[in-house]
Structures are given as C-alpha cells and as structure tokens.
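Entry details:
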Amino acid sequence: MGSQVVQTLRQGVWASLTGGWYHDPHQNKFNNSCHLYLWLFFLSFPFFFLYFCALPPTTLALSIYCASVTAFFILIKMVNYRLHVMFDEGDIVAQNSVSDISKGVDKKSNCVAFAGPDDTSSQKRSKGRREAEERLTPEEAFSPNTDQSAPLLQREQRQQTHLDTADEGLPPSAGSEEESDEEADKKKEPTVDPNNNSSCPELIRQGEEQEEPEETYCSDEIAVVLVDNSGTSAHLDESDTVKIIITMSCDPQTCGCVGSLQEEDSLDESSDTTTQEKPSRKLYYKLKVFPGKWINILYDRLTLLALLDRNQDVKENMVAVFLAFLVAFLGFVLLNQGCFKDFWVFQFCLVIASCQYSLLKSVQPDAASPIHVMSVFHAHLYLNFLFFFLGFTYCFPISFLLGLLPQINTFFIYFLEQIDMHFFGGTAATGLCSAVYCIVRSLAVLTLLYGFCFGALKEPWDEQHIPALFSGFCALLVVLSYHLSRQSSDPSMLFSLIKSKLMPALGDSEAEEVDTDNVDPLPEKLKSSVKEILLSDLVVCTVASVLTFAVTASTVFLSLRPFVTIVLYALAATVGFVTHYLIPQLRKHHPWLWISHPVLKSKEYSQFEPTDDAQLMWFERLYVGLLSFEKYIVYPAIILSALTNDGFALSHRKSCDVLLMTVAGMKLLRTSFCNPSYQFVTLIFTIVFFEFDYSSASETFLLNFFLMSIVFHKLWDLLHKLHFIMVYIAPWQIAWGSAFHAFAQPFAVPHSAMLLLQTLITTLFYTPLSPFLGSAIFITSYPRPVKFWERNYNTKRIDNSNSRLVSQVDKETGCDDNNLNSIFYEYLTRSLQHSLCGDLLLGRWGNFSMGDCFILASDYLNALVHIVEVGNGLVTFQLRGLEFRGTYCQQREVEAITEGVEEDDGCCCCEPGHLPHLLSCNAAFNLRWLAWEVTTTKYLLEGYSISENNAATMLQVYDLRKLLITYYLKSIIYYLVINPKLQTWLKEQSMQEALQPYSKWHHIERDPAVFSVKIDEDYVHCLQGVTRASYCNVYLEWIQYCASKMEDPVDSDEDSPLVTLCFALSVLGRRALGTASHNMSNSLESFLYGFNTLFKGDFRIASKDEWVFADMDLLQKVVAPAVRMSLKLHQDHFTSLEETEEPAVLHEAISTYRSSLVICDESDPAWRRAVLSSRDTLLTLRHMVDDGTDEYKIIMLYKRYLSFKVIKINKECVRGLWAGQQQELIFLRNRNPERGSIQNSKQALRNMINSSCDQPLGYPMYVSPLTTSYMGTHKQMRNIWDGPLSLESIRTWLFSRWLRKDNLTSCNSGVNMEDVDCAVSSVSQNHNSITSQSVSMHLGRPRSSQTRHHSTGSEKIGGSHGLEVRDPASKTPNPQLLPGRCGLGCPPLWVSVLTAP
C-alpha cells in the first residue's frame, strides 16, 4: 500500500503539476536526466531570456525567443521521427561489445585513441579489430539488446513496455528476418581499406593472453563510445550505462582518422582484465545521414519510447511544433504585459513549462483520459482560455491533477454535442466527425430558415393576410425539422449509400473482391433502412409542406386566438399525461411501486416459456396512436401557432429576435419529433410559471418554451444525480467494500453542503459525479458526451480467420469461454438491431431518453444496453455483455434483480402481511431506495438456448466409444458416396495403385495403437487386427444401401473399387484418430483429445496414408464432415437407438442433418456465419480449460425466443461509477482485483456496472460497436403502419383498392365473376399437412372448375395465366396481391388471395 501511494504521488500528483515530468526509477539515468533537464530548460528559459538578459519587450526579442523554442522543438522532433523511421525501415547489424570495439583499430588505418586519465592500460597497440558487421540469426535480430550481462533487466524492460509497444502497433525493432541472403553475405565481407599505408601505431590490449586474428577495418570510419560507469559493478549494467556507438562510412578517397572516444570514467579494472570472457554481440541500426554515409546506432525502440513520445507522421510533428510556438508567443506577450507579478510569474512559467514539456513527453497518464494524447490537450486548452480567462491559467496544474478537463477530442465532441442538443434540438454524437457533421448540418438549415423568416418579417402584415413567404418559412421549418429528426448523427451509412448510387462501378468492384461467404449482411440491411427513410421522407415532406403551408396561410391561428392555443395546450397536457405517465406506470412490473403486478399485462406474462414472438396488444396500439398524434399533430400545431403569433408581433422588430424565433422553432420541433416523453411536463410548467408566477419576466411563448426545455433538461439530470447520491449513501443499506469505505461514510456527512454544490456544478456542465474509490465521498469528473467513452471499442472475436496457423495447430484458438460465448451477445445485438427501436416506440421498455441504460437479464445472458442516440424512428445503442459465470459479487446482484418481492409480508419489524395485489410496506420502501427498477419481466428476443452435455460421461463406457467409431465410419461411407468426385476417384489409376494392398482379402491392419477390440466393431481378435473381410461383414450392407441411393449406379459388391476405397478411408480415419490421441486411444482423456483434434479439422496423416493427398477433398469433404456427423448421430442414439440401426432411417437422418444442422468447431469462421445468419440448430464440441478443470462439452444451440427482464438503471449512477473506475485504475493505479469499488452493492448494481466498462477497466465478455436500430425493421410496427410510405407503396395501394374492381368487371364477359370470387375465397391453408387448394380458370367456359391437389411448392391459378398462390408454409404475414390474366387477353388482374385458418 505504501509503495502504491508513493507511485501515485510521483506519477499522478507530481506529474500532473509539472506537465508530465517525474522521476521513474524503472528507467535508466540517461532518460531521467534528459527529462529533468528538458523540464528545467522550459521552466528557466523565460526567466533567463526576459529577466537576466534584460531584453526590451520588442518585436525582435519576441522573435528571438519564439524562434529559439521553435528551433529546439524542430530539432528534437526531427531526430525522434528519424530514429523511429530507422527502427521501421533500417538495417540491423551485429557488433561485439564495447570492450571489444575499444580494443583497437586496424594497423593499416589511420587512427587516434582517446582515453580517460584513469585508464592508461587502454592506450596500447592492437594489430586489428574484429569484423564490424556479421550475419544475424532471427533470434538475435528479434531482441533489441542481446547483452548477456543483464538478462534480468531485459526481461523487466520487456514486461514494462509490452503494453506501450502493443498500443503503438509497431513492428519488431529487428529487421534481419527481412534481409535477403545477398545482403547478409555482403555484411559478412570485411571492409578493406584500399590504402595499405598507415602511420598509426598498433594498439595492443594490456593483459591479453592470446592475440585476436587480424582483420582489416576501414580507415575512414569513426567509432564513438560514450560510457558512463559510475557504479562499482564489474559488469556493465544496462540501466546505468548509456552506449551510443556511431560508425561513419565514407568514400575511400576521403579517408580520415578513426578514433575511439570515451568519457573520463572508464571501465573497471575487472572489465579490462577479463581475458577469458566472450564478447557479447550488440545490435546496431544503420542510420543513413547522407547518400553514401551512414552511422550505426546502438539503441532500441523501447528506450526511445520511454524517452520521448512518438508522433506517427509528419503532420503530428508539425502541429506539435506549431503549438509550442503559440505557447511561447502567448506566454512572452502576457509576461511583457505585466499580467503576473511576484510569485505568480514563477507559477505562470510553470504552466508554460508544463504545456511545452507535455508536447514532448505526455503525462503517463493523467486523471482525464486513459489515452496518452495529453500534449495537444494541454496546449489547446491553454491557448483557448489564456486570453479570456487569465485567472484560469493559475489553476491549470490543479485542474489537470483533479482531472477536471478532458482531452481535446472529447472536449470538442462534448461541446458541439451540447450546442446541437440544447440550441438546435439535435441528438447525441457518436464521434468527432459525427459532432462536426451535426453542427454543420444544423447551421446550414438554420441559415436557410433564417433567410426565409427574415424576408417574411421584413415588412409588417395584418391578421387577415399572412405573407406567403412566412407560410413557406413555416412549411420549410416543419419539413426540415422532420427530416433532420429522421437522420442519424453518424453520416457514414448515408455517405455509403450516396457513394453506391453515384459510383456503382466502384462499389461493384469492391464487392467482387470480398468473398460472399464472409460478407456481413448488417451493412446492407442498414443501408436499405436508410434508403427506405429517404424515400419515405420524400413523400411525407411533400405532403407535410403542403398541409403546413395551407394551415398557416389560412390565418386560423390568428383569427381564433387565444381559443386555439388553450385547446392545444389542454390537448397536449392530456395526451402527454396518458401516453407518458399513466400507460407506462400501468405496464411496469410494480406500478407506482405499490402494486405487486402489472395492470396492463402482455400475453406472454403468464407463459412459462413463450414459443412465439410477442403479441401486439390493444394498449400498445393505443400507445403508438397517441404518441404519433402527439408528436406529428399536437406539438407541430402548438409551435406553428406560436410562430404565427410571434411572427405577427415581431414583424417590426430586429433581426436578432427573428434569429431567436427561428432557433427556438427548429429546436422545439426536432425535440418533439425525436422523443416527446417529457415535453408535456415542460409545457405545463412553462404555462404555469410564465402566466401565473412570473408573468413580468415572460417573453414570447416560443422563447419561454425554448428556455424551459433547456432548464428542464438540466433539472432531470439534477434529479437523477440526487437520487443516485441518496440511494448510494443511505446508511441502512450501505455496502462497505473495504475499510476505507467504513472510514469515508462518517467523514462524508459534514461535507454535505460541498456535495450539494458539486451536484449543481456537475449538472450545469453535464459531468459525472463519481464516488471516490467506491466510497460515500463524491468528486467531480471531467465532462463527457452522451457516448461517454472516448474510444470506439468493440470486441473482436478470435477464430481461425484472424489467428496464426501455429496457434491453431499447437493450441486451440480462442478456447477461452468468454471468447467463445461472445458470439451469443453478438447475435443478441443483431436481434436488438431489428427490434429495439420498434419495441421502444411500443412502450415495452417504458419511457426512455438519450443516455439511458438498461440491463437485459435472462438465465445466462446479462447485458447492459446503453442508448446513445434517440431519433425519430431510429435508436443508436451499444450492448455490453457480461460474463456467463460471473464473480460472486455479480451473482449476488443478479439474484437481487431476479428475486421477487411479492412474497414479502414485513412492515418494519413485524409481518402483518399485505393487501391483495399490493406490496408490503417493507417491499415498497426498499423498492424506492434502489437506483434501478424492473420495467418488464417478459421481454422476448430471438436468441439461442444452450444445452450442454459432458462428453466424458457419454463416452465413459467402451461400448459407447465403439458406437461412435461405427457412426464415424458409416458417415465416411455416406459422404464418400454422395461426393460428385466419386467416379473420378474410382477411375484414377494412381489412386488405385496406392490402394492395391487394401483390395486383398488377406490384408490385415495390425496397429495396436489404432485398432482395438474395445472400440472397433470389425476387429478380429484371433488376427489381432482389421481385415477387409471383417470390414465388409459389418459395413457392406450400409455401403450397398448408400450406393443404391445414387442417381448413377456404382458397383458395390465385395470386390468393387468402391468397397476398397471405403475400407482404405476407414483405416485412414481411425489411424488419424489414433495419431491425434497420441496412440493412446484406450484412455478416455486421450480419446477425447484426439477426437476433438479431428473435430477441429487437424489431421496428422501417417506415411502409409499419404495417398490421400492425391485429392484433398477426401479429407475436407469426406473424413472431416464424417467426424462431426458421427457426434450428432451418437447424440441421437440415446433417444432412438433402434431407429438409427436401420439403414433407411440412418440415411434419412444424415441427409436431414446435412441441410438443417450446422456442425463445426467454434473457432471455424463458418460457426460465426451460421449464428449470425440465424440457423435453427447448431452443434459443436468445446474443450473447456478453467480453474484446473479439463472438460469436453457437447454444445447444442436451438434458436428460439428468449425471455428477458428489462431493468432500467439511473443513468447518472452508471456514468458516475464508470468515471470512478477510470480514475481509480488509471490515475490512482489501484489494480487490486478485490478492490472495494467493485464489491457488490445491490441497491446500485455496482459490480455489474463497473464490470461493463471498456477493457482494461472492466471485463465485459462482449462490447458491440455503436449499432443503429430503425423502426422499419420491426415487423409489428410495419403491420401498424403498413410499411414505410413511398411512391411504390402508394401505387400498390391504388392498384389493390381502386383498380381491382375495374379489372374484374372488364373480364366479366369471359368468366363468371361469382365463380372467380368463390374460387378465390375457397383457397385455404392446412397447417397440419402441407396442403393447399388451387383454382383453375378455363378459356371459353362459363364456370371455373375447382381442383384440389397436394403440393409442396407454389400453386398456379388458371394454368399458365400467371396467377400464383403462395405456399401455406410461406412466412408472408399479409395477404398477397397476385397478378394474373384472364383468358381474353384483358389487362393484368390483381386478386387478393387470403388464407383461411
């Protein structure tokens, strides 16, 4: 604990105050010294330049100061950038250690040696030096430093910097694996000096027992060795030694001196006298300085990253240099202006030093963000607030320490999002590009509307005549507000649709490059939904503009005032109260937290396991109707009435009022269209407050309503924060997770006033209020957008498509349970994408708004759904799936969610019971002190139910293993016979020659590690093996039956090539199983391991069976699917053993499973595709390794409707706990897995919320990308509205309703219409047997004859006349309009074919 506090003070508190500088004991002296001198330079340079140099505050002085800082930054950034480029692209060479390099130089080269005064022994002659460049092995090239004297240091350094390396996404610093052999051979050749004459004496190392072999070295190379050996160790310690060895190469004509420079502190005596020690090899990077000139750098990337932050490209470096220049410029100006005096001058220089230092080395990290981009953040906020809030600059270090300011991109998203929501009625942003797109879109629309409004109000007008321009402005306002409310804040899908329409050739070429099997269907579904919205808006906006123009031009709002406004206000209040308060309360699990069950129950409420989708109830239809009436008629009428009245009053006023009116109308309309859940409360309060309480402060109604909408938005946030605080710190239910919580509980009581002040401030700025270390002490965090998290984090499932082949062979890919089970949350996300928006609009989740958080809880799936954006007919959300088998704390909180309180009879300390259909007093009291509430108990979603069986139990007995082998061999025969290449294999000469031994009846397979009497049905005990005769005795009947089912007959007698191939494949399959089982098939563990290996598709083929490589389809399409099918057949034999023994039944079962069942390994990409494509049934074999247990589970998935509980959580509780985890783990570095902040707290669901954080803060099993759900994909909403309104749907409706009668009348001359009507009405559907009735109409006959027949496909009415009746098994929910023609050549006939029960 003490070391953690010291680390927090050093790397957290001190680093925040200094802008990032602190002493890191894990780094070497060189890095720490550079950091210290850099920070001192930035701190003292303004003092030195302005006060010691005493330069006058002129433009020349400003230019000198700014130029000096800029040049300094340019130099450092250039060197840093060039070194990283060298690590990425440079060549690697190997040289000996420092002691060997400093032995001497070639006797034929001109050289000068400089040594420290304490090392006179090094000033001796040597006949040569070792080769400078040698060939590297891959192992040596991978490591940045191969010094053998400090192996422990290397391990520590790699562990500490592994995360940074992964974050940077850098390749290994070594590059010898990429070098060609020719380049390596060139490196091995010694560099020979063409000038053999040399005047330099030979330097001989003192104490050298054996002279090194003489090698030539280029005379024009310079070796510079800087050694700092201040310690007393005999060996070089890499943490205390800085070695920069530079070898410069030039042309032979310009040969110069070659020297070796050492610092005054030389190596120890022991280092000089170690004659038997082998020199260690060092890795050097070639840094090209000029053409033909290069230097060798003994350095590595990890040390450089610890020294300076890396800027990825030239643009980032340019921005950093520019920001440093601006900081220097503004700092110099403010100091010369005399804005700071005495001590505050030093404090301001400290701020300057912090800003400039953070551009080179960011704080690691600060309380604001887990992302290391604080450099831009510091400088940008400094520049933005420097001139306008000079006093604020004093608080920069404290603000950074407490984490009150976000990083720059988060701040921009938050700032633009708040402006768009509160002033323009926009929705939440999903990123920086989204925020910029939304604000630009809103400003463009506002500019257009302002022009129309200003033109309409430029001249006065009377009550009897409203200018057409103003009516056009109102129509345009309604249309654009409606269209903006229907569009998502993420423009990527819209741009993708536009790109596909404008450049279809480019889109087709890109689509051809992608495999159709691996294409994700979700983007196309989203694109089609966006297309439907655009087509629908085209029609709706046209109709709405005409109606709006007509209503506003009719002067109804001016002529009938104030009667119209009073009626509209009363109507809005009544409809809003019923729609958003009364109906949701009656549908809750505990209405008003007093009633024990819902008053308005769904049909599924009383069902134990619903098998069908949720039924549409009458109150849901009523809710949708009232909601549509409210947001499409009532509120637009109120706003248009206010616009008309205010426009009439403002016709002589200034343009500023016109701008406010335009902004208010746009914001209120967009808000009403998107989510009017709380609009009626705001409207009622606006009327009461400004009409009765403070009428003197009232402006126009439109501005009053606009102002109150902003105020009420903050009041709802304040209410949520107060509720969260009161629930969290309630003393009778406090959950102390640690001793600190027990101390903080009474300590927080005297600071209630400060807590209230923090609550008000955080509400104003929309910032989370987080509990400090999970205790009762609350602190303010930095502002965040509705999305909350900076990164677009989403889980990437690991399978065979994105993992290395060696990991697939040596170990099971993604065998972690969380990785395997994440597919179920991914499928749940797809289900929500189809139904979430429609279910929200049907009121199945209760009232909702942006930022709300819900928990979906079922038997094994527990997911947190975060609603980010709420639009008109669309919802953007993110799902965070929790672990199946969670921790103890998670299980306790899940129990609190699932357990009911209906049986509670307590009232204080006694148990008097409760009234019928009501809760007890204790239960009602406890429900009111929870940060969550159950809104729905039976919410149905399409998902997969999981059933698992222990494979060890099913294969424990030898007879069961023998049965599995039997099914395995029978499946091989089946897949071989149905393969279209069978005829080719039977006729191929090379394969027949390889299978010649298997055609002999006396051939015996005697491998005791493969064949055994215990597991092989065809094993001959007396022969100790398997023969062709014994194989035919067991499997010949099955071979002949499968062959009889073929379209082309194949010879299948005992001596046929087919039997030979089947026998050979059976031997190969069993031998592959024995090899995978390590030749220990008799052991259950080994047998399961081998079978699981084959199930994954890993076949180790013995040399005897290499004939199978003639065609790999024999393994991929015969043996591999046979392994998987045998597992399913083995599952079935427990329920129908007698049936599977019959060849006909077995053949039919395999054929059925081939088409209806997906059997594959979970790491196979086909498994994910099958799940996401909603296949009905799936089977797999899972190897589970957890807590020392090694189990094999047979997993079966069945698609059905899963029942979830929907729990709504206080969104401020979620934001506060997330912010607290981010500060605790990143800034305070509390990595204790049992820390108090994640202990269970049933009243706040603390563990479930904290575990849903982004990794590494939390440990969610799956985090989905931001997904948008559209109303048009919901089946029941499409039934209510008959699909999206478009030109095509209107044309279809006109044909079906109006033209049907005319067409039927025109055909009456040739056909009796009464018979046609009777025939059509007689078409019925039988659900028990796939049977339908057809109607035929014959030419020239006065009456049509009815014919009944059985069919499994489509049926035709009238023979070939094109009138088609859908198959009864069709899933089309609506009556089909089917085209046809009569016998007289009349126009197309549309007949409504209905299905009768």
